[in-house]
Specification:
alpha+beta, 7 strands, about 35% helix
Length: about 190
């Protein structure tokens, strides 16, 4: 019986399991994301996150320690040169597991495990959304009001500044984006 045994052996002997995790960690560092089963991804997270923490200090000792786990000089160089500078400010949680469904053959739950700082879709480094505060009152005390930036098909237009003392009616109107209408698009295709 396995009462209280919390370690997942992944259906492998010790040497096979260590080799598999080493290869998966190397693939994760090299490709920044890999597809695997959820159980293997959870085991890989426990295996690779201490290595990523160790890579923050670039010393001979930490390189040798990481090399003893990964057994590949090129992957160790990749880890210390490219991955470590990006995760330097992160206190932990370097990987993300995204469940993708079930495998068709054996119905195993599949997922995508990736390095958090290398996914551009979730990063906050891009353009910050312009936040403005609009007053409900007519604005005797407010001198300027800004219109919120509108996004047009992935792009961001600049926010416009309107002086309320010269154009009070301009603040109540909605700014319209200049998108071509269906008539304009059909005329352009005919030309």
């Amino acid at each position: 019986m396995r009462h209280g045994r919390k370690f997942n052996h992944l259906g492998r002997k010790t040497a096979h399991r260590k080799a598999m995790l080493s290869n998966m960690a190397s693939s994760l560092i090299l490709h920044k994301r890999i597809n695997t089963t959820v159980e293997k991804a959870k085991a890989l997270r426990v295996y690779v996150e201490p290595l990523l923490t160790k890579s923050k200090t670039d010393s001979t000792h930490s390189r040798r320690t990481v090399f003893s786990y990964l057994q590949n000089k090129d992957i160790v160089n990749e880890l210390f040169r490219e991955v470590a500078p990006k995760i330097a400010n992160r206190p932990g949680g370097y990987t993300r597991i995204i469940r993708t469904g079930y495998r068709l053959g054996d119905n195993a739950e599949m997922c995508l495990i990736e390095l958090v700082d290398f996914n551009e879709l979730y990063s906050n480094d891009g353009a910050k959304k312009a936040t403005t505060r609009r007053s409900r009152r007519g604005g005797a005390g407010a001198k300027k009001a800004t219109d919120a930036a509108e996004t047009v098909e992935g792009g961001v237009e600049e926010a416009t500044v309107v002086d309320e003392t010269t154009a009070p009616e301009a603040t109540t109107e909605e700014t319209s984006s200049e998108e071509p209408t269906a008539d304009d698009a059909s005329e352009e295709t005919e030309k």
